[in-house]
Amino acid sequence: MSGRYVLLNSKSLFFLLAASIGIPAYSQVEAELFQTHCAVCHGSDRLGVSGPALLPENLRRVRKKQAASSIANGLPATQMPAFSGVLQPEEIASLVEFIYTPLAKTPAWDEQTIRRSHRVLNPELVEGTAKSSRPVYEADPLNVFLVVEAGDHHVSVLDGDTFETIHRFKSHYALHGGPKYTSDGRFVYFASRDGWVTKYDMYRLEIVAETRVAINTRNLAVSGDDRYVLVGNYLPHTMIMLDATDLNLIRIIPVTDQQGHSSRVSAVYTAEPRQSFIAALKDFEEVWEVHYSGQISKIGGPVIDRIKLDDYLDDFFFDSAYENIMGAARNAKNGQVFNLTEKRKVADLDLTGMPHLGSGITWVYNDTVVLATPNLQENTVTIIDTNNWKTIKKLETLGPGFFMRSHENSPYAWVDVFVGPNKDVMHVIDKATLEIVRTLKPAPGKTSGHIEFTRDGRFAVLSIWEMDGELIVYDAKTLEETRRIPMKKPVGKYNVYNKITRSSGTSH
Fold first, then answer.
1. What local confidence, expressed as pLDDT, does residue 79 receive?
2. Vertex 246, ends 241 and 250: CA angle to 5°?
3. Residue 60: its pLDDT value, please?
């Protein structure tokens, strides 16, 4: 009787909590199922505890069928157990509908909650008292890759010379937006989809500190002087500034307009020559420039320039001088070029569909520099002259693409076909002729994506985006395969040198 009483009391408390934070009364049966079987790991409020948050915003890339399978069969290499022997199929279906139901009220993630989550795991690294400033491995620390393996939420540290795994460690659920290195490559910062920010020591191969800044995070950026980390969030509508040394909270920046409306943050990137962060907003026709040159504290700063736009800016790309940003417009008819200094639009771009400018790259072509971008909706790669912003060429591909990569020492640019019947191919473009010269099919029937080059550009490393995936290493000159390395859905690879030197062939 006492066990039954405690369970009923726990449920009653849950419903009181749900009412107070705005969880809709979708179904008492479904809510009770969640409270009984899921709340201990995912939180009574669905905002996550040891397990990730279970909200539509956080499950955007997880299909309902996949969610049902995860509940029934569990997830390998995680704490998620299988419930097929406990729950009936209709109960699992009810739980899926429940977790995909939006909250009626946007939950808060306040200063106290952020500070309570903060933890320093290696104080000597924060205080600068660590005995060694050299890597614990023999590999070139600037030619190391971080490989994010989404299949079982791990990160592998890969030697870019031997392609042997140096170390592998568990990450938070669904890392998002790409890791960002300090200027010397010593430390790297990760953001997970459910708001955890992690600082990792690339020399000691240890986590330094962690803080949970939000419920749903988009990405983060590190200031050019290595003092600050800025995190852009979908839920709540904030940007969070952290001390890059120990990830302690410095400032919560509400993303609101003059009328009090709030916006999700699409992306944040650092513009080092300007000593600022640039933030794209999902729900305002504005882009924000957040300056970090002065001393920023909880009370003072940062200075924010709010640049008015004539369309929403979801995704963007910097020119080499960081004076202009090229943005994808929401209208699917054109892109736009905005000058950050003049704070105005200076050109329209012939970019239809949904260009993925965040994955754009540049290279020298004849007497100009061109920008090339894949497209998430159209079977094209658009190549634009950055001197006059005119389209030079549109290459027809076998399907929409997500990632495009090259290297200063390579004559080729690579672009995937990420969705559709040809998701298993990779196009190779000659940068001198602007023609597709090879179409590779690395693993028939399996998704190919995300090329990254070694430090010297000799090798190109490709991902097979499957649970039983792998990295495939190609000679970047001959385009011949040299090696395969099994991985658990390796969604991204990030070479230290190419990132910290801002190679024109990779994203920043």
1. 67
2. 25
3. 66
- Residue 80: both structure tokens together: 């998620």
Q: Which of 212, 315, 188, 300 is nearest to 253 (CA)?
A: 300
Contacts of 192 by beta carbon, 8 Å cutoff, 6+ apart: 52, 171, 172, 173, 174, 175, 176, 198, 217
Query: Does residue 116 fall inside a structural domain?
Result: no
Domain contains 209: no
Q: How many domains does the chain have?
A: 1
With respect to residue 306, please indicate whether it lies within any of the assigned structural domains: no
Backbone φ and ψ of 47, nearest 5°: -95, 0
Domain contains 38: yes
Q: Would you state the torsion angle of the CA atoms of residues 348, 349, 352, 356, taken in this order, to the nearest 10 degrees?
A: -120
CB–CB of 327/345 below 8 Å?
A: no
- The model's pLDDT over 480-500, given as tens digits with 9 standing for 90+, comes to 999 999 999 999 999 999 999
Tally of CB atoms within 10 A around 40: 12
Sequence-separated contacts (24+) of 301-310 with Cβ below 8 Å? 301/251, 302/241, 302/251, 302/253, 304/253, 305/343, 307/338, 307/340, 307/343, 308/343, 309/285, 309/336, 309/338, 309/345, 310/285, 310/336, 310/345
What are 201's two structure tokens?
A: 């020591």
- Write out the residue range of the structural domain in which residue 88 sits: 2-99
> Which tokens go with 146?
């971080």
The whole-model pTM stands at: 0.84
> At 30, which CATH number?
1.10.760.10
* Pure H helices in 220-280: none
Spatial separation of the C-alpha atoms in residues 441 and 427, rounded to whole Å: 9
